[in-house]
Design a protein that fits this description.
The protein has 152 residues and is mostly helical. The protein is 61% helix and 0% strand. The protein has one domain. It contains four helices and no strands. Keywords: Cell membrane, G-protein coupled receptor, Membrane, Receptor, Transducer, Transmembrane, Transmembrane helix. Pfam families: 7tm_1 (PF00001).
Length: 152
C-alpha cells in the first residue's frame, strides 16, 4: 500500500503543496556550502567594514562606497543566506508560486557568491586591505593611535 504525501496545510485543502522529504545527501551538501558561504561572507565583509571604519587614511569617497557595499554584503551573509537555508526545506504559504525556477535559484546563488567574493577581490587588488587585515588579525588595531597608522 502506497502512502500519500503529507500536505503542508491540510486545513486549506491545498493539494499542490506537499511537505518536503527530509534532505538527501545532495541537499545536505547544498546546505553545508551555503552555511560556509554565509560564514565567509560575514567574516570577510566584517574585515572590510573594520578596515575602512578604523583607519583614517581610508576615509575617502571611493572607500565609503566600498564600505556601503560591504555593509550590505555583510547583511546578506548574516540574514539572507541563513533565512534561505532555514526556509528552503519548509512549506511556503503560497505554494510553489514563490519557490521559483532553477534559473532563479542559480541567480540567487550568484548573488550570494558575489557577496562573498567582493572582499576576496579587495584582497587581490587593494594592498591597503591586506595591510589592514594583517593589523586586525594581529590585534595591532587595539593599540593607541592605530587609527592613524599608514596602511596605504
Amino acid at each position: 500500500m502506497m502512502e500519500e504525501d503529507e500536505l503542508c496545510f491540510p486545513q486549506l485543502l491545498n493539494t499542490s503543496c506537499k511537505k518536503p522529504k527530509p534532505p538527501d545527501s545532495e541537499a545536505v551538501f547544498i546546505y553545508t556550502m551555503l552555511f560556509i558561504m554565509s560564514l565567509l561572507t560575514v567574516i570577510l565583509n566584517l574585515l572590510v567594514i573594520i578596515s575602512i571604519s578604523h583607519y583614517r587614511q581610508l576615509h575617502s569617497p571611493t572607500n565609503l562606497i566600498l564600505l556601503s557595499l560591504a555593509v550590505s554584503d555583510f547583511f546578506v551573509g548574516l540574514l539572507v543566506i541563513p533565512f534561505t537555508i532555514l526556509t528552503s526545506g519548509t512549506c511556503w504559504v503560497l505554494g510553489n508560486m514563490l519557490v521559483g525556477s532553477p534559473t532563479e535559484a542559480f541567480m540567487s546563488f550568484l548573488m550570494y557568491f558575489n557577496s562573498c567574493l567582493n572582499p576576496v577581490i579587495y584582497a587581490f587588488f587593494y594592498p591597503w586591505f591586506r595591510k589592514a587585515v594583517k593589523h586586525i588579525v594581529t590585534l595591532q588595531i587595539l593599540q593607541p593611535g592605530s587609527c592613524d597608522a599608514n596602511v596605504l
